[in-house]
């Protein structure tokens, strides 16, 4: 099934995925065109190795092409990121290496994700989140926003599982304290 580019430009990402599930190549190309720049940036925030980023990107979109029929009830971006984050964890396991999150000295400006999250969460929740230490925000971002398990978060951030659990607990306590 081939639709005109005009139809695809007007379609939202969820509709594009439904079309991809019906093997619409033009819809897949449009979905890739819209989402790949964002996804590459997000992957690069978690991995400095361009080869791994390229491989994960390719594996992610191959999974989208093959599994678009499984997309239901979520946002397209969230679904896409879940696939990509898991592929990145798999790549780290294959490579047998850990990543190091940027230290506070290396980070010149707050990550775009933190800024977007702060804009989306106003009031007490936004303030509480912004008051967290960067390492606590990283764990919350991976586990809550990206939907990763403790083990996947551990591999992604290059820290032991026990540290992930401790930071998640500290983040919850700090959020609770800041909001009371």
TrEMBL record:
<dbReference type="InterPro" id="IPR013325">
    <property type="entry name" value="RNA_pol_sigma_r2"/>
</dbReference>
<dbReference type="Pfam" id="PF08281">
    <property type="entry name" value="Sigma70_r4_2"/>
</dbReference>
<keyword id="KW-0805">Transcription regulation</keyword>
<feature type="domain" description="RNA polymerase sigma factor 70 region 4 type 2">
    <location>
        <begin position="125"/>
        <end position="175"/>
    </location>
</feature>
<dbReference type="InterPro" id="IPR007627">
    <property type="entry name" value="RNA_pol_sigma70_r2"/>
</dbReference>
<dbReference type="InterPro" id="IPR013324">
    <property type="entry name" value="RNA_pol_sigma_r3/r4-like"/>
</dbReference>
<keyword id="KW-0731">Sigma factor</keyword>
<protein>
    <submittedName>
        <fullName>RNA polymerase sigma-70 factor (ECF subfamily)</fullName>
    </submittedName>
</protein>
<dbReference type="InterPro" id="IPR039425">
    <property type="entry name" value="RNA_pol_sigma-70-like"/>
</dbReference>
<dbReference type="InterPro" id="IPR013249">
    <property type="entry name" value="RNA_pol_sigma70_r4_t2"/>
</dbReference>
<dbReference type="Pfam" id="PF04542">
    <property type="entry name" value="Sigma70_r2"/>
</dbReference>
<dbReference type="InterPro" id="IPR036388">
    <property type="entry name" value="WH-like_DNA-bd_sf"/>
</dbReference>
<keyword id="KW-0804">Transcription</keyword>
<feature type="domain" description="RNA polymerase sigma-70 region 2">
    <location>
        <begin position="31"/>
        <end position="97"/>
    </location>
</feature>
<comment type="similarity">
    <text>Belongs to the sigma-70 factor family. ECF subfamily.</text>
</comment>
<dbReference type="InterPro" id="IPR014284">
    <property type="entry name" value="RNA_pol_sigma-70_dom"/>
</dbReference>
